[in-house]
């Protein structure tokens, strides 16, 4: 299902009972965080919130703030246009596993998949709602003012309802930004989500981390000293911010994924002040550039996904040349912090969607979970169908070599019968199935730059735990004991009695 704006998505959430409107004025400085954090702590992630009168320095902003819009399994499925995230994953999996059809049924299924693919390629359009209002910093005379905001044209960055999330944050941060960059060598487009710190009315920080695709693009511009065009957009179809966070391989355009998921090609329109293309139905577009001849600036501190503040570090400055927006724009935001927060549901959906890719590389993988406590990169549980010695180690090394899985600090590999989404079950196997000196490896590799525990930024040590049942050839000469389980026949026989006992209230 394609949403034509963030408001369109919010209307859908409201119809589905997934949205709470907050008509009272609430400050973008810390107060929206406090309310949102309470809502996110509700079972299953709570509801989406729409702050209708967010205030910026005490003045009500013309733009409402939407938050926690993707913060539950159900809402995440709605973003993907399906009843469940698993359904979306299954569809993407069918595409990846497509083989030549052997019969009419298979041919029909493949044709259905091919039909879905016609939406994948973004289309170019000449105008879009994202340009209802145009504010040109470089040529103010070319601005198209909004009715309400007067001839000088609002907003600047300083009067958008951008949150200061946490008390020790270095200022206001755009927390759901979709950042578009282009590889100067081959024109490949990348869409990533990198937080944006507001420094003044036309300058921001650009927090693309060392190992991210836009940072690689940036390095090429730094090598040639050429000005790097960058476009940041917000809103539109919620599948855009989701796709921006998806760990696609470098070179694969995230707008292809967005088109596939929304079943409608993403309509792209040229920026006012660069040749970059952005979705015509975005709510806000902030155009500008990074100047490689400038020194890096101080970015942060910021209350991060990790649950801790990340300290000030050096990042490029981004200079705004234009802001354009829909007349009825909604400002989408999130907060990150001690887990679980909204990003947990986004990350979980990503892992499910990309499971077929993991399984194509490692057919023995049954399931993967990134428990909330591990804030994405700290902890991965993976279950495998083990058929040969040291297979768990192959999986650890394989995952550490796959894209952003390189950041994983701890990998625990368990047997196929373990539900990796049940942390208690995994801990039980980990504790009972391991002999530490034999079953744990410690190695080194790239680390999440947000990890404050590594002695150096961006690299550190990793631990792999083989919690599978051991084979004799893995240094376990003793017989491996069977796990205690009741016979199926007894279980089935007792179902009826058990239900009667429960219904009598005897438990
Ligand atoms: C809410 C949210 C905020 C994020 N902020 C950042 C950030 O500031 N910097 C960063 O490098 N990655 C950040 N990420 C992670 C990236 O969006 C993610 O790694 C993405 O795959 C990067 O895209 P790329 O591989 O195209 O570079 C954030 C993710 C989420 C969900």
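Sequence proposed for the structure above (507 residues):
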């Amino acid at each position: 299902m394609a949403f034509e704006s963030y408001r369109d998505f919010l209307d859908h959430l409201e119809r589905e009972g997934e949205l709470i409107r907050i008509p009272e004025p609430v400050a973008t400085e810390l107060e929206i965080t406090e309310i949102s954090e309470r809502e996110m702590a509700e079972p299953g992630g709570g509801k989406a919130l729409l702050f209708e009168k967010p205030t910026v320095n005490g003045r009500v902003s013309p733009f409402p703030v939407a938050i926690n819009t993707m913060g539950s399994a159900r809402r995440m499925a709605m973003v993907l246009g399906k009843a469940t995230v698993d359904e979306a994953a299954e569809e993407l999996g069918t595409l990846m596993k497509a083989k030549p059809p052997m019969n009419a049924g298979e041919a029909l299924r493949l044709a259905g998949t091919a039909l879905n693919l016609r939406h994948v390629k973004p289309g170019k359009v000449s105008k879009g709602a994202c340009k209802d209002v145009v504010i040109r910093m470089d040529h103010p005379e070319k601005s198209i003012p909004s009715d309400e905001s007067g001839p000088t044209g609002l907003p600047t960055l300083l009067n958008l309802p951008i949150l200061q999330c946490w008390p020790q944050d270095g200022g206001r941060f755009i927390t759901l930004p979709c950042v578009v960059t282009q590889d100067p060598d081959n024109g490949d487009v990348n869409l990533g989500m990198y937080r944006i710190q507001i420094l003044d009315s036309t300058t921001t920080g650009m927090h693309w981390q060392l190992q991210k695709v836009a940072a690689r693009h940036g390095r090429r511009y730094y090598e040639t000293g050429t000005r790097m065009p960058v476009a940041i957009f917000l809103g539109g179809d919620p599948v855009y911010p989701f796709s921006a966070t998806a760990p696609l391989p470098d070179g694969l355009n995230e707008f292809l994924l967005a088109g596939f998921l929304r079943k409608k090609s993403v309509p792209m329109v040229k920026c006012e002040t660069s040749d970059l293309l952005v979705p015509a139905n975005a709510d806000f577009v902030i155009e500008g550039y990074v100047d490689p001849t400038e020194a890096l600036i101080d970015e942060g501190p910021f209350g991060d996904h990790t649950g801790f503040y990340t300290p000030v570090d050096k990042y490029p400055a981004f200079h705004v040349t234009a802001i354009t927006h829909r007349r009825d724009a909604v400002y989408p935001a999130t907060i990150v912090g001690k887990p679980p927060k909204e990003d947990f549901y986004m990350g979980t959906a990503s892992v499910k969607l990309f499971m077929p890719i993991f399984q194509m590389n490692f057919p023995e993988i049954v399931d993967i979970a990134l428990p909330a406590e591990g804030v994405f990169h700290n902890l991965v549980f993976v279950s495998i169908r083990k058929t040969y010695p040291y297979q768990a180690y192959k999986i650890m090394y394989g995952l550490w070599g796959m894209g952003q899985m390189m950041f994983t600090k701890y990998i625990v590999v368990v047997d196929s019968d373990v539900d990796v989404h049940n942390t208690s079950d995994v801990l039980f196997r980990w504790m009972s199935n391991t002999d530490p000196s034999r079953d744990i490896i410690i190695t080194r590799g790239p680390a999440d730059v947000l990890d404050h525990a590594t002695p150096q930024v961006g690299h550190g040590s990793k631990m792999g735990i083989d919690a599978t049942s051991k084979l004799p050839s893995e240094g376990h000469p003793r017989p491996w004991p069977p796990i205690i389980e009741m016979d199926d026949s007894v279980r089935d026989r007792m179902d009826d009695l058990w239900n009667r006992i429960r219904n009598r209230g005897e438990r």
